[in-house]
Amino acid sequence: MRRLTQLIRTLSIKHGTEYQSSHRNLNAQLLEVTSRFEDVSNRLRLEQDHRRQLEDQLCRNQRLETAGRFADAMSHFFNNYLTVVQGHLEVAQMSQSGGSSALLEATLKELLIATQRAAGVTSQFVSFNRREFLQPTPLHLSQIIDGQASMLQKALGEQIAIQISHQPDLPCVMADQASLEQIVFNLLLHARESMPTGGRLMIQSRALSIPDAETASQMHAEAKAGDYVVMTISDTGKGMTPAELAGLFDSSKLSSDPEGGADIALILVLGLVRMQAGWIDVRTVLEVGTEFSIYLPVATGTAPTAATPEKKLLSHSAEDESSTILIVDDEDSVRQVMEYVLTSQGHKVLTAADANEAWTIWREKASIIKLALIDVKLPGGVSGFDLEKALAGDDPTLPVIFTCGYSPTTLSNAKELKAGENFLPKPFGMVELLNIVGQALLKPARL
Fold first, then answer.
1. Average model confidence (pLDDT) for the chain?
2. Secondary structure of residue 246 in the 3-state scheme
3. Which residues contact 246 (CB under 8 A, 6 or more apart)?
4. Treating both helix axes as pointing N-terminal to C-terminal, what angle do 102-129 and 177-194 enclose, rounded to 10 degrees?
5. Which of 246, 357, 399, 427 could form a disulfide with 440 if both were Cys (CB 3.0 to 4.6 A apart)?
């Protein structure tokens, strides 16, 4: 009996030990599985967050790409209409030259200048969208600002007074004129919005020399040592909070916070300033005003004369006056103004709205057509480049001039487009049209 009791006790102790060991093993396995589950859960959560961020970034990129395509399309249509306006204005101005109506001639001149400036804005917008870096030239910043003073005052309105001052004998800056004009105009619009009840806008320019990299780093993150001209545009408006200032150029806030976030016009300004190898500094005080300082590098060369050379028609022979020209453009008004200008100089004109119509005309009149003016963007799935290839297959000696309101770098084609030779960018004026046509007709005659 005693042995049986000892045996039971021994077995109980052994079973208890094995149970505790097994329990500990199960607990360890459970903890390990739980830890692995937590790790997997954390990784899944991080992957979901990362995927969500990528999706948000993709949506933003798609919106920006859509905006870029919209800008290209708008520039196409806008340049078409500008071509019509500019062509009619130049014709009217020429007919009035030497007459007694000085007021009408002055008005036509102002309208013509306005169309040319609008054309510059569209080309700059498309260039910025396509990240085409411009070719800066030496310019007198003070002359550009003073030349815009009248237009700037009209844009500001009577409630806002504009004051302009320049340091004497400023050096030239290395920049693009259309970019500078757009920078000034966009900053002016921002200032006007911050002064809804009126105020004062000040534009100042001065020279600045940054001696070394250490001094430059203390001024601005993008600053570099060198000689600069600083253009400061300040207003007496409502100013900005620190949060508004921090997000002023943040493109990600364009859609998420349109009221207090970034301004697309200012993002464009930032891009244009950087294209000129400069930088922009902003200071603001709430309910006091905002000051934008644009730093532009000093040019090493000399600026061209301020006077714009007068556009003149090239001399043409009598043979050119009886040339038959084929115009292919899907815009009725563009065809009409081009036909009017060319027929007024003695040319005969045939017009078509698309490639199919142009090909029908060509098959009937090929023997008398001496030149083709073809818009690159045509309806019906056949581009101007396709039409040119078909015409060249019939007659490789036919001179062809392409026209388009898009940026040339956005056109997918192997043919090299040279403005003034085989390419006439829209909008164009009467002189540009007649000169490029005259040069094309002066080439060796067709066999």
1. 77
2. helix
3. none
4. 90
5. 399
Q: Which residues contact 156 (CB under 8 A, 6 or more apart)?
A: 162, 188, 191, 192, 201
**pLDDT, tens digit (0-9, with 9 covering 90-100), for 332-374:** 888 988 998 899 888 999 999 999 999 999 999 999 999 999 9
CB burial of 354-383 (b: ≥16 within 10 Å; e: otherwise) equals bbebbbebbeeeeeebbbbbbbbbbeeeeb
Tens of pLDDT along 137-155?
899 999 989 887 877 777 7
Is 18 strand, coil or helix? helix
Q: How many CB atoms lie within 10 A of CB 264?
A: 12
Domain residue spans of the chain = 137-297
What beta strand segments (E) does 78-198 contain?
A: 137-139, 160-166, 173-175
**Per-position DSSP letters for 41-73, written without gaps between them:** HHHHHHHHHHHHHHHHHHHHHHHHHHHHHHHHH
* Contact (Cβ atoms closer than 8 angstroms) between residue 199 and residue 236: yes
pTM of this prediction exceeds 0.85 = no
Sequence-distant (≥ 6) Cβ neighbours of residue 231 within 8 angstroms: 141, 145, 184, 203, 204, 205, 293, 294, 296
Query: pLDDT digit string (tens) for 408-427?
Result: 656 666 567 888 888 998 88
Contacts for 314-317 with beta carbons within 8 Å, 24 or more apart? 314/434, 314/435, 314/438, 314/439, 316/345, 316/438, 316/441, 316/442, 317/442
> 81-91: string of b/e by CB count within 10 Å (b at 16+)?
bbbbbbbbbbb
Strand pairing class (226-235; 289-297): antiparallel
| Beta-sheet pairing, 226-235 with 199-210 | antiparallel
Q: What is the DSSP letter of 227?
A: E
Nearest-angstrom CA–CA distance, 222 and 236: 27
The pLDDT tens digits of the residues spanning 248-297 come to 887 666 543 434 445 667 877 888 888 888 999 999 999 899 999 999 99
Give the torsion sign (CA, 263, 264, 270, 276).
Answer: negative
Beta pairing partners, 443 = none
Cα separation of 296 and 402, whole Å?
36
- CA geometry: angle 342, 348, 352, nearest 5 deg: 85
Pick the CATH number of 137-297 from 3.90.1300.10, 3.30.390.30, 3.30.565.10, 3.40.50.300: 3.30.565.10
